[in-house]
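Please predict the structure of the following assembly.
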Amino acid sequence: MKALIVSGHNFEDSELLVPYYRLLEEGVETHIASSQAGPLRGKHGCLVEAQALAQIDGGEYGLLVLPGGKAPAVLSKDEMLLDLVRDFMAAGKTVAAICHGPQILAAAGVLAGRRVTCYCTVAKELQGAGASYLDQSVVVDGNLITARQPRDLPDFMREIIRRCQG
Amino acid sequence: MKALIVSGHNFEDSELLVPYYRLLEEGVETHIASSQAGPLRGKHGCLVEAQALAQIDGGEYGLLVLPGGKAPAVLSKDEMLLDLVRDFMAAGKTVAAICHGPQILAAAGVLAGRRVTCYCTVAKELQGAGASYLDQSVVVDGNLITARQPRDLPDFMREIIRRCQG
């Protein structure tokens, strides 16, 4: 199984770095992609190298991870990413989003009737997209795994890794 | 088992954040300490809150993690930390250091005859302290786990978690 992490400038550093290294520890080949290729700078200053989404074949991946920070508000307008999210959801493949990451799911229109969590300030946006918001560290609803914030990373990763092993 | 991560300002962000969240995922109660209490800023800009080493009872912990970055060069002069390292080593408890972290082990005088790795520029300092340097992603020598750099975090964490489970 391969994993794809999609983010952009001003990603929440811990929410990208922790899944990236954790998935590699688990032996999962993991790539980072963004709207354009090149280095991405986290909102605290960490740098990661991203491939361009246009060069990615989503069919190769079984897991999509969407970190938070300020990147998701911008990524929510990337039609290529929204199509990728819809493809993952239609195929029932695992989609994991944390903090502001679920904004991308709302923009993709895949949340109607789904149970989710997210950063507290994003809750109304997700409810407006038809989701039921739960104030829990992590919410698992079928193929969808969502979490609230950096301090929920341990619970978020435990659920993601369970899927990788299943 | 409880884990203690000790670092200071200008820690390598990924080398502190990844062990911290990974150990919590594993259910290991994990604390961060430094020479003084307060927020620590990573060399890229991430912030974490640290307790003062003077408030820490080393006997409560079974695992000591020493991240890299620029912090270890300063921490190598903290006699309270050097005593803590010597206590861990004398008790055969797990000590895990990455990148520049092993500089602290050299300063504590606990490396004579031990096999280690570290960031390449630190190798001579460790050899001068009596260690055998190996250019491998991770080196396990008894209770001592060392790794070279951020990209070795997956191998480093795999060995640390194996000890937590053992």
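The two ends of chain A are 11 Å apart (CA to CA). Strands of chain A lie at 2-6, 29-34, 38-41, 47-52, 63-66, 94-98, 115-116, 132-133, 138-141, 144-147.
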